[in-house]
Amino acid sequence: MTKEHFQSIRPLLENANKRTNPHTVGLFELWCAVFYLLRTGCRWRVLPSDVPK
User: The pTM is what?
Assistant: First the structure.
């Protein structure tokens, strides 16, 4: 997903996060990590090192 496409869903993610702690990781990086998990079927622990913790 490109950053331009992500901008269309960004408000939905930001509104869903109003009751939690402030962001420490960018939403785009988190979204890409979720897509990586879904595509590869790997576990959170074995994500590549370039994905934020």
Answer: 0.66
